[in-house]
Amino acid sequence: MKAAALLAAAGLLIGACGGGSGKDLRAGGAAKPSAESPTGSTVYVTAKEFSFDPISLTLKSGEESTISLKNAGSIEHDLTVGDAGFKLVVAGGNSGEKVLKIDKPGTYEFHCSVAGHKEAGMKGQLTVT
Fold first, then answer.
1. What is the architecture of the domain spanning 2-128?
2. Which of 106, 88, 107 is nearest to 45 (CA)?
3. Closest among 111, 74, 108, 118 to 94, alpha carbons compared
């Protein structure tokens, strides 16, 4: 009984983390069709406890790309590219999208910024060519 209570409290704590800024997108429905993307490409990523698929992404420098994130997990996850000031937050079981544009070619890390998720392996590599 005590263990169940601790496990439930831990789940609530982890699920409550992940907040975000006013730039977050919290979506309640399916991702929009790529035809609505302004320019560039659409990159599809799936998040779940505690991984991304795929873990390697490639974008073109200076080009707007739509990141479409499907959260196949049961709790909130996000896709954050800290060096680009990008954060897309999606509630469990939902999808969302947001435009990302990086002008400088290079290799960037993306991760889930919910407490403990990055450390649990929820991260990947973004290459900008």
1. Sandwich (2.60)
2. 88
3. 74
